[in-house]
Description:
333 residues, alpha+beta, Muramoyl-pentapeptide Carboxypeptidase, domain 2, four-stranded antiparallel β-sheet, three-stranded mixed β-sheet, 7% strand, rod-shaped, binds zinc ion
Amino acid sequence: xxxxxxxxxxxxxxxxxxxxxxxxxxxxxxxxxxxxxxxxxxxxxxxxxxxxxxxxxxxxxxxxxxxxxxxxxxxxxxxxxxxxxxxxxxxxxxxxxxxxxxxxxxxxxxxxxxxxxxxxxxxxxxxxxxxxxxxxxxxxxxxxxxxxxxxxxxxxxxxxxxxxxxxxxxxxxxxxxxxxxxxxxxxxxxxxxxxxxxxxxxxxxxxxxxxxxxxxxxxxxxxxxxxxxxxxxxxxxxxxxxxxxxxxxxxxxxxxxxxxxxxxxxxxxxxxxxxxxxxxxxxxxxxxxxxxxxxxxxxxxxxxxxxxxxxxxxxxxxxxxxxxxxxxxxxxx
Length: 333
Ligand SMILES: [Zn+2]
């Protein structure tokens, strides 16, 4: 109760008023007595002494009584609080009345202001933290958006702007972002894509560029690799960007049936497929027992390939090839 400023103020007001009454009224009475004496003794001389003494006596008695009232109230309060009569609340009520003074009120007011300013400060800090968090979120979203736009635009330009190489005869071409590749079923090696591939290791010689990849597909690979490196991982491509017809024949003959495509039908022969090696981080290759957990670079590559116009079509195939990369949009003609 002593912490309630309003109650303390009421107590203080009451106390002050009592103190004023205690002095002002007796003072007034003394002045009145003096005036009475002056009137009766000096001016009128009407009343007899007995009446005068009675009049003055009454006023003196009243003055003493009024002077004593606050003292009496204090005395009663003192008595009550010392006896600790009633509940604790009553006792603290009396204690508060006795203790109250201007300093106590001021002290309480200061404390309350301090508490308020502490609360305000805390709220301001919280608001600031929330603001900073939101700003960071917005910034991250903006960055992600910018990255996505950049990758999309670069992919689109790779796709749509390269509409040359429109010779459909035995060639891969791009139209409206889609790869078109011949779907030969015949077995005349001279009509296959592989005829352009050098025998043996095609590295540095190649079908359409130095790694033997189709130029458009090569651009997609490069964009993809850059993104993977930015994500903290890495990737390396097989050197067989363009696999020769003869090599496809030998794979077809020696590998388990269904594993290698029929010669003339493999995207590898057109330089539009790649077998890639995944990395755990920027420099360490994943082993053959790789999983998404121990090879996060593979997880990232599988999850993001589509954003770069590429796909891993054989992740869930019966002959699982989680490393085989094709163009996302591909049609055979
Ligand atoms: Zn492959």
